[in-house]
Amino acid sequence: MIFDTHCHLYDDPFTDLKDVIKRAQDNKVELMLIPSDNIINSKKSIDLASKYSFIYSAIGIFPGEVDNLDLSCLEEIEKLAQNKKVKAIGEIGLDYHYYQDNKEKQKIFFIKQIELANKLHLPIIVHSRDACEDTLAVLDENKPLYGCVFHCFSYSVEVMKILMKRGYYIGLDGPVTYKNASTPKQVAKEVDINRLLVETDSPYLTPTPHRGERNEPARIIYTIQEIALLRNMFYDDVCKITYENGREFFSI
User: What is the pTM (predicted TM-score) of this model?
Assistant: First the structure.
């Protein structure tokens, strides 16, 4: 049993969605959660979750999408969140790697969506890239009350330990399989296994040995295999523990 906790299956590359789902199920991926980055894709995420019993949705505004929006769009997110298949607000956060000219607006949207998640009794899925200090500062001042996962965790072991002390989760994906990715590998070794989620971030971050190809949920097995190897654990045990972690975090 496997739970891919972060896969963007509404993206254009998935015109063969039925085949993608079949391959995932053949690899024992039993649950999937589709995060969102804007209003349109939030609706697409909910639509897919409504069609498949094993797919769930997260909705929200990604930091790279805030430029042409005002906060009134969060009223629509709140309405969409009434759907029972919506299990989190996300992905939300700060991205200073690609988006450096609107940092303050990113922070405002991040804070307001944390507040919305708390109002709705939902956890948050955090996207944070090259913005560690500000992300932690926002979370210090605006505490998520119903859970927080750092998706595609890319920071140091020391930051991971800070998150563990706060009771947060981290998500690991394809980069942990990359030959020279020493930091993700060390994080995988040292993270509290009971605070670990596994994900693909499909169609992105394809794991070795398929790096460079389109990613899809079936390929989560390579990430799990690498984590099991790094931790000297059985593959099936990593599957089971992370599956239950995901169900607990998202209240499924």
Answer: 0.97
